Amino acid sequence: MGIERHWIEVSGIPVEIHRKAIKNLHVGVYPPDGRVRVAAPERLDDDAVRLALVSRLSWIRRQQQAFNDQPRESQREMVSGESHYFRGRRYRLDVIEAPGRAEVHQTRNGWLELQVSPGTGIEGRRCVLERWYRQQMRQLLPELLATWEPVVGERVAECRIKRMKTRWGSCNIEARRIWLNLELIKKPPRCLEYILVHEMVHLLERHHTERFRSLIDRLLPDWRVRRDELNSAPLAHDDWDY
Ligand SMILES: [Zn+2]
After folding, report:
1. Considering its fold, how many domains does the chain have in total?
2. Distance CA 218, CA 188 (A)
């Protein structure tokens, strides 16, 4: 059975509806233009979905507006109030100028507190945040490797993190060295896991052959979902109980 999918319009906003065997109504606002996609429980008909969306129109419009206002990564000014992502969640930046060690704290209610000494400029602030991102990502790797090395049956000599413009990861098979894109720490952890496993499978099969595909199908059956999520992460999403 395929996924049932169709469109409705709610107050001028086109909404893509997927019906699934789920309990909650899930609404996502997606790049590049703030398109709205809804995953709805099968028992909710279009009228019920429309009603639910009308009650959340201001939320949806706010997300679309936030997206339009969102500067590109390179244009980030590193000032309070800006959106920054960490492990698939959006956080607001709170720049705190205080003497002492520069550090980053993540608060429960969705703030990234960036503490820097007074007068620290954009570049300095960016460096502090990037260093923190690296630390956070590095901390995730030992457990992931310990989980996956026995499953894949290959040992990774070195797993390193760097900024990459065009790829999520790469694998130097001879050196058994895997490189992961630092951007992955901004994505849901299951996306990072998918890229790591993908690169590890290259230790078994160099190219994206049929064999590669059947290996990754067996090791990580939901890899396509993770890949799609990686490449179309929502800007914002919300689950409501019904
Ligand atoms: Zn590959």
Report:
1. 3
2. 22
Residue 149 lies in a domain: yes
Mean pLDDT of the 111-119 span: 95
Quick check: is 12 in a domain? yes
Q: Do 79 and 115 lie in a common domain?
A: yes
Residue 195 CA to ligand 1 centre (angstroms): 9
Quote the ligand 1 centre to 178 CA distance (angstroms): 11
Distance CA 160, CA 90 (A): 25
Range(s) of the domain holding residue 200: 133-231
Instruction: Encode burial over 105-139: b for 16+ CB neighbours within 10 A, e otherwise.
Output: eeeeeebbbbbbeeebeeeebeebbeebbeeebee
Segment among 89-93, 122-126, 234-238 with least mean pLDDT:
234-238
Shared-domain flag, residues 120 and 156: no
Centroid of ligand 1 to alpha carbon of 31 (angstroms): 25
Same domain, 127 and 138: no
pLDDT in tens, 139-153: 999 999 999 999 999
Clarify whether residues 149 and 178 are in a common domain: yes
Q: pTM here?
A: 0.67
